[in-house]
Design brief:
With about 90 residues, this protein is mainly α. Helices cover about 40% and strands about 0% of the residues. The chain has 4 helices and no strands.
């Protein structure tokens, strides 16, 4: 009985560290090549994929992302009521 308990305990201790999932891959470097949609879709871990996509979207304008607007305009200033049809003076 004692040998059986020792064997069961030893087996449980050895198998406790086993996991069926492989080790996660490191996140690729954020650059023009890796920030393509095809490359992002290859990342299997959903959390890592979302984090990487967020980092790609926040790259600097010199890195290929969308540059900030130099002269932002208000839509209300663009729509002059005098220019619209049916507007009353």
């Amino acid at each position: 009985m004692r040998k059986t308990m020792l064997l069961v305990g030893l087996t449980a201790a050895l198998l406790a560290g086993c996991d069926n999932k492989p080790a996660t891959m490191p996140m690729p470097e954020v650059n023009d090549t890796n920030c393509q949609i095809e490359t992002i879709r290859k990342i299997e871990d959903k959390a890592a994929r979302e984090t990487f996509a967020g980092l790609c979207s926040r790259r600097s304008p010199t890195g290929g992302s969308i540059a900030p607007t130099e002269k932002p305009m208000n839509w209300l200033e663009l729509a002059d009521p005098k220019d619209q049809k049916g507007a009353r003076p």
